[in-house]
Amino acid sequence: MKFIDEFRDPALARKLVAQIHHDAARRAASHPIRLMEFCGGHTHAISRFGLRELLTPAVELRSGPGCPVCVTAAADLDRAIALADAPGVILATFGDMVRVPGSRRQTLQAAAARGADIRIVYSPLDALDIARQQPQREVVFLGVGFETTAPGIAAALLQAETEGTPNFSVLSLHKLTPPAMRAILEAGEVALEGIIGPGHVSAVIGSAAWEFLPREYAIPCAVAGFEPLDILSAIGALVQAVVAGEPAVVNTYARGVRAEGNPVAQQLLARVFEVGPADWRGFGAIANSGLTLRESFAHRDAARLFPVEVASTPEPPGCRCGDVLRGVIAPTGCALFRRVCSPRNPIGPCMVSAEGACAAYFQYERWNVETFERSNVSTGA
After folding, report:
1. Of 16, 151, 277, 321, which alpha carbon lies 20 to 30 A from 53's?
2. What pLDDT, in 10s, does the model give residues 205-228?
3. Sequence spans of domains, the chain
4. Are the CB atoms for 321 and 350 separated by under 8 Å?
5. 35 with 196: CB under 8 angstroms?
6. Sign of the dihedral through C-alpha 283, 248, 44, 171
């Protein structure tokens, strides 16, 4: 299949892996080159294709916060659940949100079971269509995502304005990715030497949006696609930059990403949203990392239309999803992983989401998990 088979060539993959090991060996340091893949899609591709094992011990990969479902704060989930319980409201959401736990392990799925009208949709335009069909009900779309999904939601809001559909609103929980990467580096909890930049996000914001990494932190960034050769090419570029001591932004996903990004999508975002603070699970509040509706769209802002008070929202005891999202630990570093927390019994969102690191490790990283379990047996953990 065009644009897939050519990026899964085993012979080319072996050459790239050998080159990465060769380049990494040129460095005098005894520890592996530690990189972070920001995007949850990259995490799953890395695990699915066994890239982490192939690159050991030359390169260590840490997963980042690039799962919008996972980084949605528990308080925001509680707010969405309370809103779904409001009389006359239909809550429309993408399907990956329904099992994500808020505080006290409450979920949208449980709210639906007790009678809340929650509809799973594939597009915000589907939610707008529900609003057309149910003019007597208020349809609220749960807006969760990064810069990738936000333009589509902006387009749906503009369409609702154009056609005069009054009963469609959005609870905007959108996040911006560069501020989160900056927060990780500023915190200093994990020493990183390179960043695998998110491909889909960068298609919107542009590879130039990551120039602050080499400029301010002397860390290279390589924007990557999602096939094995895409990711290996990006890692190879990062290893070369680290060894040469020449940090820069490299776009290894030129077929999907331009330096300037997508100006049409950016214009949509600017018309509907403005930048403000946002709460991230595992991080807390990050300045200038969220998208809220502009004042001109206040009549479509569910947070204003349905103000909801939520109580304090402690994380589940023992869950270290926040540490995984910040790259402080791998999923195997959480004591609940596999013992208590599993896809059937997810304690935190990193095990629920299709892009969550814990779900990726559980499904694909058998060698990593077996090493972890043998280590625990030998140490009596």
Report:
1. 321
2. 999 999 999 999 999 999 999 999
3. 5-67+188-199+212-251, 70-176+261-305, 321-372
4. yes
5. yes
6. positive
